[in-house]
Amino acid sequence: MTIVLAIVAGVAAGVLAGMFGVGGGILFVPMLLALGLDQHQAEATSLLAIVPVVLVGTWRQSRYGNIRFGAVGRLGAGSLCGVVAGAYLAERLATAMLQRLFGVVVILIALELGLRAWRGERA
What we know:
This protein is an all-alpha fold. The protein is built from 5 helices and no strands.
């Protein structure tokens, strides 16, 4: 049954990621927590689970001409440094603290998106 739930969760997260361009962690981590992983395991598993979503999403969006390749290099270089630092910090935090921080980040993202929508701003 867990396998079926994981597949359904993956399909749902993939659809939402494809529609909204949402990062995998915001979708995958809560689903993995619901499947019984702890916060550290859910975040680490999410990083690998997002790879197929990224590959397919990138391929499809490139066909529409939506990718700005100049920004990819700059953003990617910063992300590589950041993910090493973030993983190092995450391993040193207690699971409960990591889960609280994840929740705060999700709430802040939701508030920012809600304010932009309320004001009619484009992202």
